[in-house]
Amino acid sequence: MEEIVLETQNLTVYYNGRPAIEGISLRIPRRRITAIIGPSGCGKSTLLRCFNRMNDLIPSARVTGRVLFEGVDLYGPDVDVVEVRRRIGMVFQKPNPFPKSIYENVAFGPRIQGIRDRRRLDEIVERCLRAAALWDEVKDKLHQNALTLSGGQQQRLCIARALATEPEVLLMDEPASALDPIATMKIEDLMRELAREYTIVIVTHNMQQAARVSDYTAFMLAGEDRVGRLIEFGPTQQIFTRPRDRRTEDYITGRFG
Amino acid sequence: MQARVMLERDLSAIRQDVLRLGGMVEQAIDRCIEALKRLDVEMAREIIAFDEEINRMRYQIEEACLETIATQQPMASDLRAIIAAMFCATNLERMGDHAKSIAKLTIEMADEPLLKPLIDIPRMAQIAKEMLRQVLEAYVEHDPEKARAAVARDDEVDALDEQVYRELITYMMQDPRTIFRATRLLWISHNLERIADRVTNIAERVIFMVTGELQELN
Description:
The complex is a heterodimer. By secondary structure, chain A is of the alpha/beta class. Chain A has helices spanning 44-50, 81-87, 102-112, 118-131, 135-138, 151-163, 181-194, 207-213, 236-241, 246-252; strands at 4-15, 18-29, 33-37, 61-69, 72-73, 88-91, 169-173, 199-203, 216-222, 228-235. Chain A is built from 10 helices and 10 strands. The mean pLDDT of chain A is 95.
């Protein structure tokens, strides 16, 4: 039995009063990689953003149902959103390092948390850059501007930055779609490595990527009403070899989408 | 629904080749029994040579499967169809080997008249061939029930194999001079029994292809 970290119960998200995703009940196991796949507009990014309340930033968004993190309702009244986002980090499609040094990018979160001690910051920066498989490439130029790195390095820097606040979960929204194949492979290897300690939820358009890296796969699809629903969830190996639902089969085999 | 033209074309070509290979094996089974009945060495040699073509077809199918996997990234039922095709090709090729073995044994026996009129052995071959045809139909029609029906006749072949064995043992006990020919007929019977067994292997893969379930029949 897998231990569940995140869970949605009958989750519906409305934009401007109209549902974008509806009735999603999904359980995310700890220290596993869960991929959310589906055609454009099926609401997979909307679902991902619910896991750290990024939808709060969209004024017209409204959420019903529940999102439980370690059993606690993320949308409950006493929840500190900043703390939620510290424990559930996010990495985006386009690498978005701050226009600061490599070092300062990683040290940014810990500094905000009040860590001033230089030696401790050094330790955190090294540990996170190592965990993101970037240390060897940047250890001699830590004070160089992060924007001088390649796209793949910038993305790994963003992962290091997300790790610096010691999260339990990493949400990744198409983390490799702006990268070349070699940089993509590095990110995928890194994800497998990170899954030893972290729970990862990844949204990807790249089915092969979902098949390669994830342990579990959720397939979402919007009906003719353009409302996204969860069609099937299961071990990745089962979804990609013998999906139960005809619609999953059609998507996986490339018959539509 | 948007079709995957290139993948569909590849899958259809692979399916056709598996059927063609099946047809070749059917022919090999037919002819090896014919050669045996007539103790026709020339025909037996042709069957042995024909086995090379069967082997080539098997490799052709395997290569086509490999290429489709590498270039089209098939998933789910498409992937299962390709894996099933590879497995069918291997088993069909092995059936061809059994026919070749029967042809070789025929050549060994051709210097003396047949030990006895052949009745059960041609019947075994006939049933095995019908089983093969039925399982190939099941493969094309994606019909697990038909695949199971093909396998159901394996018991008949096993019973005949047993009967041939008892009969030949009796011959050998009565007259040791029959041993050379009797043992060869025994091996021929056993080759036919193995051919029928391989129909079961193919039937299992047809069911896998359609349902995704790997289950042992028999």
